[in-house]
Amino acid sequence: MTDVIVIGGGVIGLSIAWELAGHGLSVRVLEQGQFGREASWAGAGMLPPGNLANARTPEARLRGATHQLWPDWSKGLTSFTGMDNGFTRCGAIEVRFPGCSDLSDWKNGVAALKAEGVLIETEDVSEIIRRFPVLSSEVSHAYNLPDFCQVRNPRHLKALQIGCMMRGVELVAGSPVRRIETSRGRVDAVYAGGIDHRAAEFVFAGGAWSGELLGQLGIELEIEPIKGQIVLLRTTQPEFRSVIQVGREYLVPRNDGRILVGSTEERSGFDKRNTAEAIGHLIRFAERVVPNLKHAEFERCWAGLRPHSATDRPYIGRLPQLHNASIAAGHYRYGLHLSPITAVLIRQILLKQPVQLPEDCRVTPGSDPSLFW
Ligand SMILES: Cc1cc2nc3c(=O)[nH]c(=O)nc-3n(C[C@H](O)[C@H](O)[C@H](O)COP(=O)(O)OP(=O)(O)OC[C@H]3O[C@@H](n4cnc5c(N)ncnc54)[C@H](O)[C@@H]3O)c2cc1C
Prior knowledge:
CATH class of the largest domain: Alpha Beta
Low-confidence stretches: 367-373
Number of helices: 9
Mean pLDDT: 93
Number of strands: 17
CATH architecture of the largest domain: 3-Layer(bba) Sandwich
Bound molecules: flavin-adenine dinucleotide
Distance between the termini: 27 Å
Shape: globular
Oligomer: single chain
Helix content: 25-40%
CATH superfamily of the largest domain: FAD/NAD(P)-binding domain
């Protein structure tokens, strides 16, 4: 019998499969559509810095732990598969314009990063404008984060698929799990593609669809889809190399002159359509931050559904109601970034190894979290 069946083939499910197979387990991943084509493909691939040693909040601990893992995680995958996922330490600058309404959040954010020991090289706006002459001269506040990284997520997902196959993982596309069969507090099988799939352990990693899937067992997951739209611009040569963030909106430059402009946060169910209003807004935003982008070519736009959990923290751990089932879902805006630590935590839980992070870093649905660590 297969050791582990993972339901959902986004970055979370594939990373878990890659990690478990690397520790000798036999793994099958069931994906309802195509592997890595939902939120994980749509994302911008930003990987913000952290520092686990000084992290004080659950969010900072998860961010710090995954930040530590990314370089080796990426190197291991690249050397195993021969595929370059575009992981790079590109740095980022965070900027604000005069009159912005969140300056007290800004100050608290800077103080929190400093307390955490995250490197900020300069907060001098004129120095930053000197280093990034493409930036609007209207910018009134800025600091930089040299340890900010990015990954080309579509390439990373391809590499994960190839890596999984090379490690013997069975990747089954076009197989929506429609039914979960349970008895005596265990999952016996999941029904997909006309077959009952049996395994010793099951991991549910269905992203924004996780609530629907587990709802049939009466497990109430407060995970909802939050749509994010992205515009892709193309310039003939790279205008800048670092990510530019303005609060929750950003420009992510790729090294081939493409620039991702993101993103919206919209509650519109499972609707992934692009709207004129959002695309117009993102293009105006890009031009305001880097005025030269008015000459950029509009290449395309898309949208993805972020899995948002009501607690703002991902569900990572055993499902309290079922002895052989775990969940890894609800990573909202940070699922690409948190994918290595999620995979490591799930491996530690399934193999009964010491678990690296304390329980408050993630939640399990409808339960006393202390039962699961
Ligand atoms: C516009 C946008 C920008 C983003 N930018 C970033 C960023 O810069 N950095 C970052 O870290 N994160 C970013 N994110 C968030 C990140 O993309 C998500 O948190 C992450 O992709 C979630 O991964 P996942 O595997 O849980 O979900 P998904 O990628 O959605 O994968 C879930 C998979 O499960 C499958 N599935 C669901 N139900 C079933 C079923 N019943 N049977 C079989 N298969 C099923 C789905 O088809 C899907 O392929 C962004 C997201 C968006 C939309």
